[in-house]
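OP here, attaching both records as promised.
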Amino acid sequence: MIEELRKGAEQEKKFAEYSYKMYRDYRVWIVAIILAGACNFLLMSLGMGLSVVASVLIALGVVLIYGIILYVCRNRSIAGMVVRDWLSHSRNRRTERS
């Protein structure tokens, strides 16, 4: 059990370091800004007269969605580990009851 806790702590540390590096990586945010600009350009080219406030809100929304997608993709492996732990825990409880 102690060994499992050590492995879990090591994995959390590695994930924290990876997350920090990803958010510090300027290329990630440059891509997000380019996507936001492309989205605004597309809407303007479709003939929608956007105000400056609307353009800024759309750009912020695109950057937010991009950040959420990155977060979900990075956490997919951690979510899988959590689900596996939960399933094994519930399976152990069922065997203890019977």
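Record two, same layout:
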Amino acid sequence: MSAESNDDVTTPGRRRPSRSRGDQQEIALLDSAQRLLTAMTPLAEITIERIASGAGLSRPSVYFYFDSKEAILRAVLQRLTRTLSAEIRDQPGRTFADTLDTFLEVVSHTWRTQPALVCAAFELAVRDAAFRQSWQDYFLNCGEVLVIAAERDQAAGLLPNFGATRPALIALCFMYERNCYLLFSREHQPEEEDELFALLRGLFRRAVGAAG
């Protein structure tokens, strides 16, 4: 899965609220920065010059769209969170088990195919308050989707009502991503990924009293 180009949302540091029809330069800058992140380029080594070069643009032209390197990286990673949030959404009629499966599949696939990009999101969130809010909103969205599905199953008698579903599931969403970061930011074996995802799946199910 790759982050789709949906860049009409205004973010801090961007020079324009949206791109003009047919104008591909802004998206080229975002794609250039994303390639650098995906190639595991340290944040400190990503410069305006490198981003501009990868987009086939000059350094001065960058400032028509963004006022800093951080603004470009923020926009790239906000694009990622919007894509993930669009895939992890509630669908009326779906059970908690099905909703959980979708959530886990999306998250695990993203970590396995774009580990450097998601690790960069974690690291940028530490130092960039504007992106940190977007990152937290993404986790909260994931948690709310799971909560809605769990409460629907509880109302239908498919799950027991523990009374603390919301805080438990939201906390697990944050814990899930944190543990993924700790694993994927270091050298590891594929078996460790399978073990982590299986463990976390079990924790989510136990949090709502699901069997198995």
